[in-house]
Amino acid sequence: MRIDAKTNVSKLLTLATLAAGLVFLAPPAAADDGCQRRTVHAEHKLHEAIERHGYFSRQANHWRQELHEARERCWRERQSWWNEHDRHWHHARDWDDHDHDHD
After folding, report:
1. Among candidates 56, 93, 57, 55, which has minimal Cα distance to 74?
2. Cα(66)–Cα(69) distance, rounded to whole angstroms?
3. pTM exceeds cut of 0.85
4. Using CA atoms, how far apart are residues 80 and 71, in angstroms rounded to an integer?
5. Residue 35: CB atoms within 10 Å
6. How many folded domains does the chain comprise?
7. Which domain holds residue 70?
8. Judging by beta carbons within 10 Å of its beta carbon (0-12, 13-18, 19+), is residue 59 exposed, middle or buried?
9. Is residue 5 part of a domain?
C-alpha cells in the first residue's frame, strides 16, 4: 500500500484544525483557580463525615467550617461561589451555612 503525501498533509491539517478548535473551546487554565475544586472537596467530606460519624460530630463540624472557608475564599477572590448541589456558580453572596440541615 502506497502512502500518498497529499493524504498525510490533509490528515495533518485536519488534526491541526481540530486541535486549534479545542484550544478555543476549552476554558482558560487560569479560570480554574481551585475555588470549585476546594468547594467540591469540602462538600464531599462533609457528607462523608455526616454519614460516618453523625450530623453533630466533631468531624462534620470540621468539614462544615472547611466548606464555609472555601466559599468565603471564592467570594473574596472572584465574587462568586460554587454550589455543588445545583452545580453552578452563584454571583451573590447568598449561601446558607445551614444548607446541609435540609439534606
Report:
1. 93
2. 5
3. no
4. 8
5. 21
6. 1
7. 34-102
8. middle
9. no
